[in-house]
Amino acid sequence: QQQVRQSPQSLTVWEGETAILNCSYEDSTFDYFPWYWQFPRESPALLIAIRPVSNKKEDGRFTIFFNKREKKLSLHITDSQPGDSATYFCAAQTSGGNYKPTFGKGTSLVVHP
Amino acid sequence: EAAVTQSPRNKVAVTGGKVTLSCNQTNNHNNMYWYRQDTGHGLRLIHYSYGAGSTEKGDIPDGYKASRPSQENFSLILELATPSQTSVYFCASGDAGGRAETLYFGSGTRLTVL
After folding, report:
1. Mean pLDDT of B29-33
2. How far is B42 from chain A (nearest CA, A)?
3. Spatial CA neighbour of A9 closest among B42, B22, B2
4. CATH classification number, A4-112, choose in 3.30.9.30, 2.40.50.140, 2.60.40.10, 3.20.20.70
5. Which residue of A43, A90, A102 is the best one to mutate when testing the B interface, meaning the one whose CB has the most B CBs within 10 A?
6. What is the least distance, in Å, from the CA of A37 to any CA of chain B?
7. Looking at the predicted structure, is the pLDDT value of residue A92 above 90?
8. How many other C-beta atoms can be found within 10 angstroms of the C-beta atom of residue A59?
């Protein structure tokens, strides 16, 4: 059973556009949602993260919107740049002992100049 | 900065052979993880550990064993390698400070089983 789902599987946008990456989850005990990005031939690295106590987290051009009732979140990348081309993973965790993170399958983003 | 080192970077093994993938972290993190990454599957958790001497099964543990002999080292062992285990393997350590865990990944090991 897939606990964390991401869509779309791949996304192509033009430079300057806003890219929207979606994520949903099933386990209501999840209370921490990090997004990782992975560039070709590199390892994943933390990009931005959110807790359900807030419904929005912003870091420069990257913003997470969170809807606890619907168990959905999305990552918005405004003014997309070719350097943002990467695979983006949504992850979910339950804090308080068992930190085991669960990853979605990822969204491959390509930003054309 | 967190440092997680994996070895080897690349490995070619024969079917039925034994393979050991090693991971070392220098940040005194309690939690360590082994993931495999395959196209279309994202990152799938194989085994993880909460500290020296402990290992836990992840979501796809079949065919793999793990060993955590010390805080710094976490190994993944394939006793009888099969072609289906051809993949890229990532080790990660977790900093669980403040109830939110950031994972720091190693550079990966590309394993090919012939």
Report:
1. 91
2. 4
3. B42
4. 2.60.40.10
5. A43
6. 12
7. yes
8. 10
Check B100 against A96: CB less than 8 A apart.
no
Nearest chain A residue to B33, by CA: A100
Interchain pair A46, B31: CB under 8 A: no
Domain limits for position B57: 4-113
Q: Do B103 and A95 touch (CB under 8 A)?
A: no
Question: What is the rounded average pLDDT of the residues A87-91?
Answer: 97
Which of A44, A83, A32, A93 has its CA nearest to residue A60? Answer: A83
For residue A99, what pLDDT is reported? Answer: 67
Percent of chain A past pLDDT 70, that is, above it, reads 95
- B41 close to A (CB below 8 A): yes
Which candidate, B93, B74, B62, B72, places its Cα nearest to that of B20? Answer: B74
> Would you call B3 an interface residue with chain A, using a CB distance cutoff of 8 Å?
no
Give the nearest partner residue to B42 out of A42, A99, A106, using CB atoms. A106
Half-sphere exposure (Cβ direction) of B65: Cα atoms closer than 13 Å: 9
Q: B53: domain CATH number?
A: 2.60.40.10
Q: What is the pLDDT of residues B66-87, one digit of tens each?
A: 999 999 999 999 999 999 999 9
A28 within 8 A of B84, measured Cβ to Cβ? no
What is the average pLDDT across A52-74?
A: 95
